[in-house]
Design brief:
Elements (H helix, E strand, L loop, with lengths): L17 H12 L7 E4 H12 L12 H16 L3 H13 L3 E5 H7 L5 H7 L2 H7 L30 E6 L7 H28 L4 H10 L2 H8 L7
Antiparallel strand pairs: 1-3, 2-3
Length: 234
Amino acid sequence: MNDEVIHRPLGERDQPLSSDVADALEQLVGPSVTLPRAFSRKQVVDELIEIAQIGKDGIYIHFPAGIRRAVFDLYDNRLTNSSVFLAGYKHYEKRTKHPVVPVTDFFFKNVYVDGTVKDVLDQMSEFEIGESLPKPPGRMRRNDQSRDFERDDEGGYLENGKVAGVVILPPNGRYDLLRIWLERRANMAVGQLTATVNALDNARPNTPAVQHLRATVAPVQSDMRKALPTPKRK
């Protein structure tokens, strides 16, 4: 059953939706589905502009340079300052069943620029993985003795914790980046589940159903660890 909602073409709307971001990622990956691949948020914005130039009748309407820059700024602001990019890559992951790992500016600045993503992922150190995964944002320091911060092409500060793009992986991929990202999600899920059971126990002390639930939750952490991708041998 197709549960996709039909929207007006992007070019007829003011702002992209999460489904548009999923469409852009799908087009960037292409029909050959050669994974893993990495795409920055700005690459997704460029692809959204390409989509926006296709009218309802399928005719391509070329944006002049000035309009394209204005649309780029509008879309980039939308994806940077809202949850649309997050919802979009999750939408893509659900649609395609391809694991998606969000990554920071550090990944695109210091780990991957171009070339084969697989080779980069195979060589990533624990430090690089930690800096590449999202965390509370902070300015990225330069790799020199200046104690200054990294800037992008427009002069703005790069943030080392904010999502700047995604890595799309094949099913059954044995990459440490994916394993550590899933381990973080698993730990968070177990923590939230345990806290919920504790809250239920406070609300209904010594209730058999709550005690049964606590006993059911106890082995979840172990099972999640067993389910994580197996790391490659170094």
